[in-house]
Backbone:
């Protein structure tokens, strides 16, 4: 492996490692996001009415809508630890490969999202009366959907975090830019879950393959954009 | 763009020709705008009075002559904005001019997207019985509109000039990339919109309606190009003034 | 002597406003250059450009013969360290963790023994597990100096490195710079108001000489609408 590739992988692993370490050191932020999501999980039935929870679209739709809120919170803090005290600038000044930094943050954010989705699925199964006969099949199917959703979302989120990093009102800007660009994977995730829920009879004309294409396209497209534009994105 | 130079080092005759060419340029743009506006009004008139009534939709269908050209212009200008954005990444030396072009394109894209949503809604009400339906084309237009709004908000919240050019270009590119993905997704999800009016070598519209539609498309495209020129000049003048003020602030 | 840093005709701007123009200097191995000037002149902006973090409006910067600007070919394999005016830290990580981060950023992996030795040299021994957030400003600055001792870079770019340091801390900073210059043939470029640091420099460059020559009225010659 040549020097450049070795440096790239070194940067990728060490940034991922330090990001994970940071979450472990500051567990309150992880619990905070989980609590926020749990509150939303409980609030939604008050807004819809509990009878509607019997419908598959409402159950799955609410789960993924809550995922979007979780994603917005997590993605808004992709570079927060490094930006707080200038560590990001030190990282950029060290000439660490910027694409490795971006990829590492994407991978870490995807894993962080998965760590939040696991307890959320349990809470969702309980509060939303998910039928037990299809639950294990649901959960087995949920894993690949979540992984692709997380990677696509994280790639987009990391990209947009770089875009808004030098702007004022970042907290407003990120959701404004993020949510419209997030619609496709959200649609794909909800539809795939509905189609594979044995308790729900899905009427729709299109095969799963198309939806998997949409879910898979996101990490590919946005990681590619991040790779090509890394110098521009993380540059003043 | 020529840098400011010391007065004493240039002959006075250089000054008037620079001003004259700038004035000629703006007068030309104004004339083009007027001509294309008249053309567009004439095209609308043709659509309103020159073509017969539709058998199924009655006279309601005539909004097609506004909605379809406006929707196409929206996509054309957003894609043009993305093209200028991509060129900006490859030609950083010309970033200033390319950013101005990209900004003007996205502004037009935003305007036409808003009009497309409005006219689509107006057409949908008598056709579908409701103001909005989550059909693929309107929904992807809505998403594109939201992204272009985000583009403008990002520009206004990014004070540093060079950072603004870069991040705006990235968002312009992402917005354009997202259009086919959202369209494809929503199309999979549902479709209540009528089949595409213009399909290569196939048509379910009569010849005179198709002709009126193409006339309106070209007229509105010409108007939008004239609008682009005017807006591009306005952006350039504003930025040049800001730059000169910043430099002259030292004098 | 080996030339480490070359700055050629660098122009700095904030938005459209010219800050400094035509900055030019070279720095050889073993030299300590102080960039001096009043507040708001552009010292920090220049340091960030030299570090490759910010892009200059015009001009060329080369480190170890590799271009940092405009073409960004420099990989800093010879190691060029930038110390910002605010010590760069991960607040939630420990002192040792931060040092590890700093060194890993340059593609190196420090040993635990080396970490402890560096911390001891800067007066932070016994604080390996202390959370960085709880350090004082001076201690944070000492931590960044420990990073320099571990990395032993060929070029140090330091923006106000003595900010927050007491007399012992300033002496430590000067000692670390001297150690790197004499022991490792490093070049050090600092932006500082500190008299002690400026007096110990081999060269002093007042940046006021690069203020834009804009006292002459100018006429715009181009196309306003281009």
Residues:
């Amino acid at each position: 492996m040549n020097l450049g590739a070795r440096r790239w992988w070194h940067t990728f692993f060490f940034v991922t490692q330090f990001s994970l370490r940071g979450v472990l050191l500051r567990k309150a932020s992880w619990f905070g996001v989980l609590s926020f999501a749990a509150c939303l999980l409980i609030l939604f039935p008050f807004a819809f009415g509990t009878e509607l929870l019997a419908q598959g679209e409402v159950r799955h739709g609410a789960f993924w809508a809550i995922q979007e809120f979780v994603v917005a919170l997590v993605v808004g803090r992709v570079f927060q630890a490094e930006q707080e005290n200038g560590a990001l600038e030190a990282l950029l000044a060290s000439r660490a490969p910027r694409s490795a930094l971006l990829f590492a943050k994407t991978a870490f954010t995807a894993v962080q999202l998965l760590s939040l989705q696991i307890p959320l699925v349990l809470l969702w199964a309980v509060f939303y009366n998910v039928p037990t006969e299809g639950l294990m099949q649901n959960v087995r199917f949920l894993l690949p959907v979540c992984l692709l959703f997380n990677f696509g979302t994280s790639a987009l989120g990391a990209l947009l975090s770089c875009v808004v990093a030098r702007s004022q009102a970042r907290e407003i800007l990120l959701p404004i830019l993020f949510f419209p660009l997030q619609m496709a994977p959200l649609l794909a995730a909800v539809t795939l879950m509905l189609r594979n829920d044995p308790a729900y009879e899905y009427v729709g004309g299109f095969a799963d393959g198309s939806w998997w294409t949409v879910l898979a396209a996101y990490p590919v497209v946005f990681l590619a954009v991040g790779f090509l534009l890394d110098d521009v994105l993380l540059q003043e | 763009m020529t840098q400011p130079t010391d007065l004493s080092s240039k002959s006075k005759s250089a000054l008037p020709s620079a001003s004259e060419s700038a004035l000629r340029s703006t007068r030309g743009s104004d004339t083009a705008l007027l001509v294309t506006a008249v053309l567009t009004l004439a095209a609308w008139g043709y659509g309103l009075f020159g073509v017969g009534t539709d058998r199924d939709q009655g006279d309601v269908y005539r909004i097609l002559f506004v909605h379809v050209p406006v929707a196409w212009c929206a996509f054309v200008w957003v894609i043009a904005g993305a093209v200028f954005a991509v060129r900006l990444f490859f030609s950083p030396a010309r970033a200033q001019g390319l950013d101005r072009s990209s900004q003007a394109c996205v502004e037009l894209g935003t305007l036409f997207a808003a009009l497309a949503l409005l006219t689509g809604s107006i057409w949908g009400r008598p056709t579908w019985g409701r103001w909005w339906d989550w059909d693929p084309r309107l929904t992807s237009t809505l998403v594109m509109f939201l992204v272009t709004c985000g583009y403008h908000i990002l520009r206004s919240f990014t004070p540093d000039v060079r950072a603004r050019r870069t991040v705006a270009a990235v968002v312009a590119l992402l917005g354009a990339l997202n259009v086919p993905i959202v369209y494809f997704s929503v199309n999979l999800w549902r479709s209540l919109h009528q089949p595409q009016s213009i399909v290569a070598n196939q048509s379910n519209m009569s010849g005179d309606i198709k002709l009126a539609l193409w006339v309106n498309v070209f007229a509105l495209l010409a108007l939008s190009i004239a609008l682009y020129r005017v807006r591009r000049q306005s952006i350039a003048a504003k930025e040049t003034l800001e730059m000169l003020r910043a430099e002259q602030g030292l004098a | 002597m080996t030339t480490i840093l070359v700055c050629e005709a660098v122009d700095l701007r904030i938005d459209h406003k010219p800050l400094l123009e035509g900055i030019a200097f070279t720095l050889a191995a073993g030299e300590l250059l102080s960039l001096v000037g009043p507040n708001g002149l552009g010292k920090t902006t220049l340091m960030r450009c030299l570090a490759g973090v910010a892009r200059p409006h015009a001009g060329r910067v080369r480190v170890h013969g590799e271009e940092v600007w405009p073409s960004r070919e420099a990989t800093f394999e010879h190691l060029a360290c930038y110390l910002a005016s605010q010590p760069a830290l991960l607040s939630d990580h420990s002192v040792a963790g931060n040092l590890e981060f700093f060194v890993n950023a340059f593609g190196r992996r420090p040993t635990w023994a080396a970490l402890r030795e560096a911390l001891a040299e800067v007066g932070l021994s016994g604080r390996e597990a202390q959370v960085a957030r709880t350090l004082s400003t001076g201690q944070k600055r000492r931590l960044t100096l420990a990073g320099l001792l571990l990395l032993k870079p060929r070029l140090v770019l330091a923006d106000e490195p003595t900010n927050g340091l007491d007399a012992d801390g300033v002496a430590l900073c000067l000692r670390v710079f001297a150690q790197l210059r004499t022991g490792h043939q490093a070049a050090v470029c600092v932006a500082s108001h500190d008299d002690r640091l400026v007096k110990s420099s081999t060269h002093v460059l007042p940046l006021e000489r690069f203020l834009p020559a804009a006292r002459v009225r100018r006429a715009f010659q181009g196309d306003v609408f281009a």
Q: What stands out?
A: Chain B touches chain A at residues 89, 143-144, 146-147, 149-150, 153-154, 157-160, 162-163, 166-167, 170-171, 173-175, 177-178, 181-182, 184-186, 188-189 (CB under 8 Å). The mean pLDDT of chain B is 82. The first helix of chain B runs from residue 14 to 49. The two ends of chain B are 21 Å apart (CA to CA).
